[in-house]
Amino acid sequence: MSEPAALLLAWYDHNARQLPWRLDITPYRTWVSEIMLQQTRVETVIPYFERFLRRFPDLPALAQASQADVLQAWEGLGYYSRARNLHKCARLLCQQYACALPADLEALRKLPGIGRYTAGAIASIAFGIPTPALDANIRRVLARLLEIRELPGSPPGEKKLWEAAERLLSRERPGDHNQALMELGALVCKPKAPDCPRCPLKGECLAYARGSQEGLPTRKVSPAVPHYIVTAAVLRSGSRVLIAQRPQDGLLGGLWEFPGGKLEDTDPDLPACLRREILEELGVEISVGEPLGVYRHAYTHFRITLHAFACGLLAGQNVPESETVRWVRPEELAGFAMGKVDRLIATGSRTFFNLLPVSLATSLDELPVLFLPWNRHHQKSRKVTVSYFLGTIELIVIAGVAFLGSTVFRNKLLWDLSAWSRLSWGFLSSFEERTKRRKREPTAGAGKDLSRRRSSSL
C-alpha cells in the first residue's frame, strides 16, 4: 500500500460518516445509493434512500414494481432517467442474472444507467474488486493532489485522472479507498475554501505546496443559462382536473403534468399562450380564469418561470381519457408521480375542492351551463340577464356554504377567501369566454396528436 493510500485510509477510519448505505453493504444497496448520489447531495439522498429501501427492499421487489410506483418513490429527487434506468436494469437483472448484480466490471458497465464511475464504485465497494472510481469529488482531490491542470471531462484531463486513480488505488481495500477519496472531497477538499490544514494528504499535495489549490481543478466557462416563460392549465371539468403524461424519452419522462407550454413571441399575453397550447396539444378551446400561482425552477440547462391558471372547457368541448391523458379528482393527484413544479401546482389547486363537498363542487361548476341555453339565436339577448342571475345565485350559494361552514365545521376548516373569489370570478369569466368564442365550435380532439406535451416546447 502506498503512503498516500495509508494516510487516506487511516483518516477515513476515524472520520467516515455513518451513512445508511455503509451500515449494511450489499450489492443492491450500493447500486441504489450510487445511482441516487449521481449529481445529488448526500444530505438530500439519505431520506429518499431509506424510503426507497422500505418500499423496494431487494432487487426482486424493484423488478416486480411498476414504473409508476418507482417514479412515485423517486419523486422530488430529480433526474428521473435514473429511476427509469434503475427499474429497467432491475428487470434485466432478474431475466439474465437471477436477480443479482454481476461481480464483474465489464458486465456492470453494460447495464442500463451504469457508466464507468458507477461500475467502478459498485465493483470496488460491494465486491472488493480493485478498480478505481472517479466522481466529481475524486476528480477535485486528484487534480489538486497531483496539480493536474487539464480540464476535467476533456480527453487529456480524463486520461490523466483515471491513470492517477488507478496508480494510487489501495489493492487491499479498494472500496474504502474510493469512498475515502469521495469523503475527503466532500468534507475537506471542497470546491471553495478547501480546509487544507486538516487534510491527511497535505504533505503529498502539489497544489497545497505551490498555493494553487483554489484554482484547481480547471473550470470550464459556462454559457448563459436560457430562461423560459411557461404556462400550465389546471383544467377542471366538474369535480375532476386534467393531467397528461410526459413522453418516456424526454425531460421528466413518464411523469404527469398539467398541460401547457412555452410563451412564444407571437403570443400577446399568457392566457393567449395557454389557449394556443391547449388547442395544439388537446384540440379543445378553453376559458382561462384567474392565476393560481407563479413557480420558478432551475433544470440542468435552463430555467423556467411557470404561470398556472384555473381553466375550464368551453361548451361542446371534450377531452377523452387515454393512457397518457387522465381526468382525476384532486385527492387522487397524490397517486401520480409529478415533477417538483407540477406537484406544487397540484397541492395549491386543491384549495377550493378541500373547502366544498364534491357534489356541491360539481353542481357549482356546472351552473353556467345549466342556466344558459346555448342557443345562438338567444345568446345576445340573454347575456346581461344571465350574468346578473348567475351572480345572484353565486352569492346565495357562497353565503349558505359559509354559514354552514362557520357553524358545523368551525373547528375543522380555515376558510380561504381567495377560493370564494376564484369561484365567483371563474363563473363569470367562463360565461364571457363561452359567449365570445361560441361562433366556432370544432369537434373536440378531432384529428389531434395527444402525444404533444408541455415538455415538447421546452
Shape: elongated
Number of helices: 20
State the oligomer: single chain
- Radius of gyration over all CA atoms, rounded: 28 Å
Weakly predicted, low-confidence segments? 355-388, 405-452
Record field, number of beta strands = 7
Helical percentage = 40-55%
Mean pLDDT: 84
Q: Indicate the structural class.
A: alpha+beta
Q: How much of the residues is beta strand, in percent?
A: 5-15%
Helices, strands, pairings?
Blueprint: H1 3-15, H2 20-23, H3 27-37, H4 42-55, H5 59-64, H6 67-74, H7 81-96, H8 105-109, H9 116-127, H10 136-145, H11 155-168, H12 174-187, H13 206-210, E1 227-237, E2 240-245, E3 256-257, E4 260-262, H14 270-282, E5 286-298, E6 303-313, E7 325-328, H15 340-348, H16 351-355, H17 358-365, H18 367-370, H19 376-408, H20 417-437
Parallel strand pairs: 1-6
Antiparallel strand pairs: 1-2, 1-4, 2-3, 2-7, 5-6
Helix pairs in contact: 1-12, 3-4, 3-9, 9-12, 10-12, 19-20
Question: What does this protein look like?
Answer:
49% of the residues lie in helices and 11% in strands. The two termini are 51 Å apart. The chain has 20 helices and seven strands. With 458 residues, it is an alpha+beta fold. The model is unreliable at 355-388 and 405-452 (pLDDT under 50). The protein is elongated and about 85 Å long.
In a nutshell, what does this entry contain?
The protein has helices at about 5-15, 20-25, 25-35, 40-55, 60-65, 65-75, 80-95, 105-110, 115-125, 135-145, 155-170, 175-185, 205-210, 270-280, 340-350, 350-355, 360-365, 365-370, 375-410, 415-435, and strands at about 225-235, 240-245, 255, 260, 285-300, 305-315, 325-330. The relative contact order is 0.09.
